[in-house]
Amino acid sequence: MRFGRVVVVAALAAATAPCASASAHEFWVQPDSFTPPAGQPLAVRLFVGSPGSLQEVPRRQNHLVRFEILRLSDRMGGPVPGVFGSAPAGQLPSVAPGRHVVVYQGGPSLLEMPAGRFEGYLVEEGLARIVAERVRRDETLRPGRESYGRYAKALLRAGRPGNGAVDVDVEVGLPIEFVPSSNPFSWRVGDSFEVRLVLDGRPLADQQVKLIHLVDRELQILFRTDAAGAVSLRPPRAGPWMLASVFMRRAASAESHDWESLWASLTFELPEETPSGESARAPSPENVRR
Fold first, then answer.
1. CB atoms inside a 10 Å sphere around CB 259
2. Where are the alpha helices (DSSP H) in the chain?
3. In whole angstroms, what is the distance from residue 115 CA to residue 234 CA?
4. Helical pair 13-20 and 115-124, crossing angle rounded to 10 deg
5. Rounded to the nearest 5°, which phi and psi values hold at 249?
6. Dihedral, 122, 127, 131, 137 alpha carbons, nearest 10
7. 226: DSSP letter
8. b/e burial code for range 81-109 (CB count within 10 A of at least 16 → b)
9. Share of the chain above pLDDT 90, in %
10. Which of 13, 14, 66, 214 has the smallest C-beta neighbourhood within 10 Å, fewest atoms?
11. CA–CA distance from 244 to each of 8, 60, 134, 228, 278 (Å)?
């Protein structure tokens, strides 16, 4: 089993809150329902935040590189439409029956932080390698100048699940992304399942990964990927979840920034079985933003 280092941090929320405000933090895609009726409209929202601070992000023309929905069985789909400057960022007029992945790519954007705040952000995101490199370069007291990009995916199922085989290959060619190793639409509470983190299609080893519940956002579990870039997960409750990780490297050559970071996220829902045996609907945005 590839659990590696696993830390439940819900009980430490108060202690980590000051660090949580030090960085831009997670970015993710969240549809109003992860199990919408087929053929019906669906709002697709973008969020950025931390356990103590959450903000819905409007559709931004200068940040948007890719925003689309793909059906996994045949990779049919297209752009997620929306109005620039408005939220929700995406509004699908209808969703075809089947299993889908929503893909978002944004950036790059520039950010500069004071030295102390940047160091806190690096520690919080498990980027000890970058802390050590700043020491080696005698840059510990210098501000952190960073270019960052955001790469987010969401898994959803429209209509009733079929009985046929499921295409579980949800790798979509993002620079960094989470890729389930098994059918994510069969995951249930109590199951153990594996997800890989890949950078340019190759396994990303020894990378911190967060598993965060999107309703009870103080419920977080930390992992590190193994040599194959994989983590084994066993979420303790139903509902919507997010996997998140940030990878950082030295900028090749740029006067505007010293570091380049790539933020990955994957959102999905573990169903809570109702008496009829059907999955419960995901919480509304009002319940999520509390």
1. 21
2. 13-20, 115-124, 128-136, 285-288
3. 37
4. 130
5. -145, 165
6. -120
7. -
8. ebeeeebbbbbbeebbbbbbbbbbbbbbe
9. 69
10. 14
11. 15, 22, 24, 17, 28
**What is the value of pTM for the model shown?**
0.85
pLDDT at position 12 is 30
pLDDT band at 52 (very low <50, low <70, confident <90, very high): low
Residue 67 above 50 pLDDT? yes
Alpha-carbon gap, residue 229 to 215, rounded angstroms: 27
**pLDDT of 160 over the 90 cut:** no
User: Of 28, 167, 159, which Cα lies nearest the Cα of 102?
Assistant: 28
For residue 113, pLDDT beyond 80: yes
As a whole number of angstroms, the distance between CA 122 and CA 142 comes to 14
More confidently predicted of 197 and 76: 197
13 vs 250, which has greater pLDDT?
Answer: 250
Q: Where do we find the tokens 């079929």?
A: 162
Question: Six-digit token pair at 120?
Answer: 């806190």
Residues found in the chain:
290
Tokens (6 digits) for 48: 């950025």
Contact call for residues 224 and 208 (beta carbons, < 8 A)? yes
